[in-house]
Amino acid sequence: MPTSYLVAGASRGIGLEFIRQLARQQQEEDDDVVVYGTVRNLEKAPASLTNGSSSQEAELRRVKWLQLDTNEQSQVDEAARQVDELDVLIVNAAIGGEDLDLMDTNPSLLSQYLQNNVVGPHRIILAFLDALRKGKQKKIILISSRSGSMDMQAKSQQKHGSAGPYSVTKAAINMCAIQLARELKPQGFIVNPLSPGWVSTDMGNKIVNDKAMPVEQSVGGMLNVIRSLTLEKSATFYHYDGSVVPW
Ligand SMILES: NC(=O)c1ccc[n+]([C@@H]2O[C@H](COP(=O)([O-])OP(=O)(O)OC[C@H]3O[C@@H](n4cnc5c(N)ncnc54)[C@H](OP(=O)(O)O)[C@@H]3O)[C@@H](O)[C@H]2O)c1
């Protein structure tokens, strides 16, 4: 039986690289992997932007693209109706990268951050639970950030990574992972937040940092972590290299 993955928020950056690496695995292992990617605008799905001339583009054409904005309940429900069975859900979509302090964040902007980075991911998870229940692996992966580590932020004398409202949402998503891991454990679910590290993407490059790593390295590491996850490792916060991040 093939293993099925769905990456929510796959139009670019880390989400698109997940799709590329999984689709490559799909090609190499002769359909042993089924890959779903979600984008906000289906007409701009990565495969349809290409002319199909390179092997990478051919890989992307094998992906099943679904349209959804994580803030739109009806789109999320419609996408979930199209997936009968799912092994691994990777919730990647988020906003961030702004260098903002909390004291300069107005309530409507904080609300926007919470909607995109906490309420949206929660909505996606609820919508795909039935498909995950039918899957063999029952893995829910929340793409988080070390910015959301209370321990690292509290011990840092200076701003640690992307602070402000973004860090609040990533701390919240970590707590969602802990609570969902506990609630869903009796059904055999594995729920983990993962930190990609500092990655060269649109978001990662908003904060000038010459140490941002190539997206291939971060996603390759996270896929190794995802494959190694077991029920005993559920509710642990992992960095892309397999080390444990303090809460
Ligand atoms: N890059 C880093 O250094 C870094 C570090 C730590 C954690 N992270 C986390 O890694 C994940 C991916 O980041 P990235 O660097 O790849 O960011 P990115 O380049 O800005 O891409 C963000 C992705 O999320 C999608 N998205 C955002 N809001 C959405 C919504 N409401 N509905 C559907 N899709 C939505 C975007 O779609 P559109 O194209 O439609 O906007 C895009 O595909 C995020 O969770 C981020 O917090 C990144």
TrEMBL record:
It comes from Ceraceosorus guamensis. Gene3D superfamilies: NAD(P)-binding Rossmann-like Domain. InterPro entries: NAD(P)-bd_dom_sf (IPR036291), SDR_enzymes (IPR052184), SDR_fam (IPR002347). Pfam families: adh_short. This is CsgA protein. It comes from the Eukaryota. One of its GO terms (molecular function) is oxidoreductase activity, acting on the CH-OH group of donors, NAD or NADP as acceptor.
